[in-house]
Specification:
Blueprint (H helix, E strand, L loop, with lengths): L2 H37 L5 H25 L6 H33 L4 H26 L4 H33 L1
Length: 176
C-alpha cells in the first residue's frame, strides 16, 4: 500500500468523527435559530446573520473537509488541489465576515479582544493552515495531515464557541 493511502486511511476515523460532530452541532443550530426567531422581538436578519453565518460555515467546512478526506481515490496532489480551492473560498468568505464585523463594531462599539480572537483570528489561522496543508499535500509532506487536523479542530472549536455565545445572547434577548 502506498504511504499516502495508508496515512489517509489512518486519518479517516478522525475526519469521520469531526464531520459527524459538526453535522450534529449544525442541526442543533437549526433548532436554536428557529427557537430564537420565534422568541426574540428586536432581532433582524442584518443583526443576527453576521454572527450566525460564520458558525454555520465553520461546521460546514468541517463537514466538507471530512467528506473530502474520506474520498478513497484521492492522491496527494488531487487532495492538495481540492484543499487549495477550499482554502481560497474560505479566505474570501472570511474576508467578507471580517468586513461585516468591522462595520458592526463601529456601530455598536462593543467588540472586545476575545470577540476578535474567536471571530477573526482563530478562523483566519484555520484557513491559513488549510492553505499550508494544500501546499504540503502537493509536496507529499505527511505533516500536512497534522496541520489539516489542527485547522479542523480550530474550526470545530470556534463554531462551538460562537454557537454557545449566540445561544446565551439570544436567550437574554428573548427575555427582554
Amino acid at each position: 500500500m502506498h504511504p499516502f493511502t495508508a496515512a489517509l486511511r489512518d486519518w479517516s476515523t478522525f475526519y469521520f468523527i469531526t464531520a459527524t460532530a459538526a453535522a450534529t452541532l449544525m442541526g442543533l443550530m437549526f433548532v436554536g435559530v428557529t427557537f430564537a426567531a420565534t422568541q426574540a422581538q428586536k432581532l433582524s436578519v442584518e443583526t443576527a446573520r453576521p454572527f450566525i453565518d460564520p458558525s454555520f460555515n465553520h461546521f460546514l467546512w468541517v463537514i466538507l473537509t471530512g467528506a473530502v478526506l474520506n474520498i478513497p481515490v484521492l492522491d496527494s496532489v488531487s487532495l492538495g488541489a481540492v484543499l487549495l480551492a477550499l482554502g481560497i473560498v474560505r479566505c474570501v468568505a472570511a474576508w467578507g465576515t471580517f468586513r461585516r464585523l468591522v462595520q458592526i463594531s463601529r456601530i455598536n462599539n462593543d467588540f472586545e479582544w476575545s470577540d476578535w480572537a474567536i471571530h477573526v483570528v482563530l478562523p483566519g489561522t484555520s484557513h491559513a493552515l488549510v492553505l499550508w496543508s494544500s501546499i504540503a499535500f502537493f509536496l507529499s509532506f505527511h505533516g500536512a495531515f497534522i496541520s489539516l487536523a489542527i485547522a479542523t479542530l480550530l474550526l470545530l472549536y470556534t463554531g462551538l464557541q460562537n454557537s454557545w455565545e449566540q445561544l446565551i445572547w439570544l436567550a437574554f434577548q428573548s427575555k427582554e
